[in-house]
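#onboarding

Welcome to the new folks! Below is a worked example of what a typical request in this channel looks like: someone posts a single protein sequence, and someone else replies with the predicted structure as tokens. Don't worry about understanding the tokens yet, we'll cover that in week two.

Example request:
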Amino acid sequence: MNIHNLYTSGTNLTNKILTNKRILRGLEKISEHGSSFSNTTSLLMTIGVRPVAIQLTPDVEKENKQYAISNSIGSGIIKFAIVESVALPLETLVKNIDNNPEKFLKPETIKNLTHGAKDLTSSRSYKLFTQIFKLGAGVLTAIPKSVLTVALIPIIMDKLFSNKPQQSKTPQPKATESFGNNFNILKDKDIFFTGKISNTLSKGIGKIMDNKKLQNIIINNEKYDKDIAKHITAGTDILLTGVACQQTAKSKQIKENRKKALIYNNIISTASTLGLGYLIDSLVKGKTEKIIEKLKTLNAHDPKVLKYVEGINILRPAVIFAGIYYGILPIFSTYLAEKIDKHTK
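Example response:
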């Protein structure tokens, strides 16, 4: 096969991917549920990839590894539970406004946020505004999430690494059954946000968006709509780490001689992830822009094309940051935290 045929074959494959209905549907879902997507990605990495990476770290005391693994698992579970309890309702309420903006926003607001776009939902300002609401669930829940994570560490340590003989207990419902029931409730979340309740809460969000000062701030910064997911993720991680370190230092259930290593591990992980994550994202972003332009061209007549673009801009940093934080850096941060802890004793 000559170079021309290889190029043509690659182009055809790219075109098929960028017009594949399942992939486009997935990008649309990511756009609508950005916080939930990031949250689910984090959960899978915290209970799977990161514990394995920590366990494989050389020259680290066994108990320090156990605390780091317990912190990872506890963080993933608590974050998923708390953030989803806020993110899912917020995403539903924002979608109400997407579907019927005239019902929840003043005419002036629609006009101001639409400026230059063919309609409100195509506007960069509107997308930035709504993504802040949807992705802000992580920020709103950062403090309780960190507090509960630290409180959960000793419990996970006891369950996973305790050598105590297990006492017989009264049979409990299977975890899969319990999770299945809860998942069914989550799938039917709209039953909690229909009718008057849904309208009232969506109107509350609408009133915030009707604020002219906030509108001006959003309009003047609409150029950040492509990076808002990345910036909110970074801000949330910094807040989570700060609170987690404070709670770890205060905890009476975590052994004193293990606290510093755990705190150092959290700080090193977050700082390294943000630095490396922003660097990699900036390098990848240029290539992503070319893909986005091609996607727009191939799907020019699809009314949801901007949602697909929004999905890509959420997907890219979520995968990069999660891959670094949970897959690449745990070995480095756990090892370095161990050395710093021993050096400061």
